[in-house]
Design brief:
175 residues; mainly beta; six-stranded antiparallel sheet; 13 strands
């Protein structure tokens, strides 16, 4: 597997290195040893699955606060999506800057999002599904969010928002 930096320090794209033969392929999607060598947190505690019926479904921007903060790795297993990542570390030179990472079932890339970042996605096809690995347990009392439509974030989504939850639609704008 290859680990590629993004414009946001600590956010990576993980590209698989499949071993291909007549049967198909075999590839590693996670290796604690490789992550340790790259100084990337690797204590996976939970694996989640998200299915999205409609193209243009938008989720986020989410993060967990305090002791519930978590790192995430996302992988699209069906369809395609864009992962939106926003730096929310106030001391960072990239504070409130974002990056878009395109993931799809064909490229099998994964995104790695460390603590201190808000995370969201928008589906680019109907019937898009992803799995994501987290380094902490979900705690609804520590869940926070930013509005993906906040003009201060200057996020340019590839598609109009077609489906969004009431909670995600109502995250407050930054002051």
């Amino acid at each position: 597997m290859k680990i590629k930096k993004t414009p946001l320090d600590g956010v990576f794209i993980i590209k698989p290195s499949p071993n291909i033969d007549d049967r198909g392929f075999f590839q590693r999607v996670f290796c604690k040893k490789v992550f340790k060598e790259k100084k990337i947190e690797n204590s996976i505690l939970q694996i989640n699955n998200s299915y999205n019926k409609k193209k243009g479904t938008t989720r986020g921007l989410h993060y967990q606060s305090g002791s519930s903060a978590e790192c995430k790795m996302l992988r699209c297993i069906k369809g395609s999506l864009v992962n939106i990542v926003v730096d929310i570390r106030k001391e960072s030179k990239n504070y409130l800057k974002s990056t878009l990472i395109y993931l799809n079932a064909d490229n099998r890339h994964m995104s790695y999002i460390p603590r201190g970042f808000a995370n969201g996605l928008q589906t680019l096809e109907d019937d898009t599904e992803l799995i994501y690995f987290t380094t902490n347990y979900y705690n609804p009392e520590k869940e926070k969010g930013l509005s993906i439509q906040d003009p201060k974030l200057k996020i340019k989504l590839p598609l109009p928002i077609k489906v969004i939850s009431t909670k995600d639609k109502n995250w407050p704008f930054l002051k």
